[in-house]
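job 3f2a | input accepted
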Amino acid sequence: RQAFDPPLPDVLLAGLAVASHCGATRLCEDPLLASFCEVELVTSGPPPPPVLFRRGDADGNGEVNLTDAIFTLNRLFKGGPPPDCADAADVNDDGKLDLTDPVHLASHLFRGGPAPERPGPLECGADEGEGDELEECVYHGCG
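job 3f2a | predicted structure (143 res):
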């Protein structure tokens, strides 16, 4: 048994609210709650800042150009490596990587088609889209 100073903050354990005024020693002595004394309490801080990236920069080199479309095509059709930041390769921000992404990018680069979705190819920014099934983004092209 260990007393915590300051006392534990209000926590929710297995549906039981335990107020901070109870203190850890008293919590561990309670026969109904004693089993929770073996639980490691992990506190969480503020959420991590969003990852900043350039939409269209599939290869993560900090520039949006033809090599990004080729990188995505290589991934889709030849089993090439996945992008470090799938959101950057998801040019149309539909939540998936498919043929429409490199086609959209090539159309923008060579035919004056619409730019990649926000944050776009020129500025670094966070993904503003709703949750998708793409893997976590790691991007170093904004540093």
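job 3f2a | The first helix runs from residue 24 to 29.
job 3f2a | closed
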